[in-house]
Amino acid sequence: MNFEEEGVISKAYNSLNPMHLQYLKQRKPNDTVCIYLTHTGQNMEMLKIAKDIRKYHAKSIVICDHKKREICKYCDETIVIMTTQNTTELSNAVYIASLQYVFNIFTSLKLISNYSYLEETTKAVDKFKMGE
Questions:
Q1: How many whole angstroms separate alpha carbon 60 and alpha carbon 24?
Q2: How confident is the model at residue 70 (pLDDT cuts 50, 70, 90)?
């Protein structure tokens, strides 16, 4: 799930970082995409973050278990992933596997769209390693 390997600056948070919110206010909104991960869509901290960031018109995607969760109202896109009802059905394992699948698709798409840039960057890194 490393977008930076595909040429995308990325950060992960479990709460709203006030300093980065200030940066977001100053950036072009199209430069930023926020992705919210919430197993049931009922995490109040994620809901608060989505509401706060929505004010700054950043694009946002929520990944949760149902498209009718409240957090979905504050996001541009919703991706519904498979979940189960209880621990005996391996709820967390199913959720994590589903997330990994979605992020593998995201990074593959980004790899394809950034291929020329990544190819040139790789050549520059290889030259650096060779001492050129």
A1: 13
A2: very high
